[in-house]
Amino acid sequence: MAEYSIGELTEFPKGSGRAIKVEGHTIALFNLGGELVAVDDGCPHMRASLACGVVRGRTVLCGWHGWQFDLDSGACMNVEWATLRRYPVAIREGRVVVTYEPEPVVVPDEEPIPQIVWKHPDTQTDG
Fold first, then answer.
1. Which of 24, 27, 55, 87 is 20 to 30 A off residue 1, Cα-Cα?
2. Which CATH number fits domain 2-103: 2.40.10.120, 1.10.150.120, 3.20.20.110, 2.102.10.10?
3. CA–CA gap between residue 26 and residue 13 (Å, rounded)
4. Distance (Å, rounded) from C-alpha 112 to C-alpha 109?
5. What is the pTM of this model?
């Protein structure tokens, strides 16, 4: 896991949400009354930015279709399968530091492609 210094704490006022890029991945960072929480920025439904969503308590409401996410767990309150990945956040010497590790890429076991021999009925011979 790598740590990324993403800015001064003063750049993230209480009650704010902001999208940040880390290694090409967009993360939504929210300041919930002085506690910083980082989750995937893209809503799993249609990839709308959650950093632009409405924060109510410890949930964020997607501005496109109203999906709600618990910022403590990343769970979606609308559908079970949609969850947000959370990222550790720390404050060091007045700077906000996010720990990020790309998700591992899962490559399915490859099955051999069956050999298909197609012959036109006019070219088949008996025997």
1. 55
2. 2.102.10.10
3. 19
4. 10
5. 0.78
